[in-house]
UniProtKB/TrEMBL annotation:
It comes from Acorus gramineus. Pfam families: Sugar_tr. The keyword Cell membrane does not apply. This is Polyol transporter 5. Keywords: Membrane, Sugar transport, Symport, Transmembrane, Transmembrane helix, Transport. GO terms for molecular function: carbohydrate transmembrane transporter activity; symporter activity.
Length: 307
């Protein structure tokens, strides 16, 4: 887009499997940017174009069926990531463990540190499994494990809360195990996949704005949950609050199962068919992908210039 053909060619050679593929992609980019095919100078003059008009209109006012489905998937996965209770478990884990019957400060600190360690460990595990197993199997397994963990946690906390005989050791152990299992299942699937999935399903011309909407929903939901959790468990008991999160996670599992297709190893062209692209959209997909390649090369060359 800046006419830096020489830099673009260097980037494409590094990121393509063969020199022939690099030249083909460069040819597509030149066509999208309005540069003559026979122009091979390192730097050329390009007429200024804007490709950002109408993005919000296309997303919100007159979305095509495929764009509407992509937007619903993005907002849905971000909403359910937070509404299934992760911030309540992580931010309030000392309070949860205290409600479970752990009163010793050293043990309370150790259990809380264990939550952070488990979260970090299983995020690392997810990085190795994400492309091997696929988004959909990992996501469904993750949410299924979260549902079971939340149900056990709700049961354990309810037993402890209603016990008139003091600490119920099996319930305390079940609560600790359930919290650690919940964090592990979240970190291996729903946690990282939310960000990966929402960034790869949008057409490149809509990616920045579409993903920003998902992130906004994510952060607003997180803030509401963090600010209302204490009031929630005082109103319906702490065990009841985790049963509620288990119910939300169950709805999330059904949503993911029925609405989110597998995207592992799929190209941008494939995304159109995955999300029900119309014939009109198919005609425009090649131009969209070309413009996306222009943007990607511009980003990489700009980064190279600042290194």
């Amino acid at each position: 887009m800046q006419g830096r053909l020489g830099d673009a060619r260097k980037v494409l050679i590094k990121t393509s499997d063969t020199p022939e593929e690099a030249e083909t992609r460069l040819s597509d980019i030149k066509d999208a940017a309005g540069i003559p095919e026979d122009c091979n100078d390192d730097v050329v003059t390009v007429s200024k174009k804007s490709h950002g008009e109408g993005v919000w209109k296309e997303l919100l006012i007159h979305p095509t069926p495929s764009v509407r489905k992509v937007l619903i998937c993005c907002i849905g996965i971000h909403f359910f990531q937070q509404s299934s209770g992760i911030d309540a478990v992580v931010l309030y884990s000392p309070r949860i463990f205290k409600k479970a019957g752990i009163t010793n400060n050293s043990r309370l600190l150790g259990a809380t540190v264990g939550v952070g360690f488990t979260k970090t460990l299983f995020i690392l595990v997810a990085t190795f499994w994400l492309d091997r197993v696929g988004r959909r199997p990992l996501l469904l397994s993750s949410v299924g494990g979260m549902i079971a963990s939340l149900a056990v946690l709700g049961t354990g906390l309810t037993v402890v809360e209603r016990s008139a005989e003091g600490t119920v050791m099996w319930a305390v152990a079940a609560c600790i195990a359930a919290v650690l299992a919940y964090v592990a299942f979240f970190s291996i699937g729903l946690g990282p996949i939310t960000w990966v999935y929402s960034s790869e399903i949008f057409p490149l011309r809509l990616r920045a704005q579409g993903t920003s909407m998902g992130v906004a929903v994510n952060r607003v939901t997180s803030g509401i949950l963090a600010m209302t959790f204490i009031s929630l468990y005082k109103a319906i008991t702490i065990g009841g609050s985790f049963y509620l999160f288990a119910g939300v996670a169950t709805i999330a599992w059904v949503f993911f199962f029925t609405y989110l297709p597998e995207t592992r190893g799929r190209t941008l062209e494939d995304m159109g068919s995955l999300f029900g692209k119309t014939s009109h959209e198919n005609q425009n997909s090649k131009e969209d992908d070309q413009l996306g390649q222009v943007g990607q090369v511009q980003l990489v060359t700009a980064n190279n210039g600042h290194m």
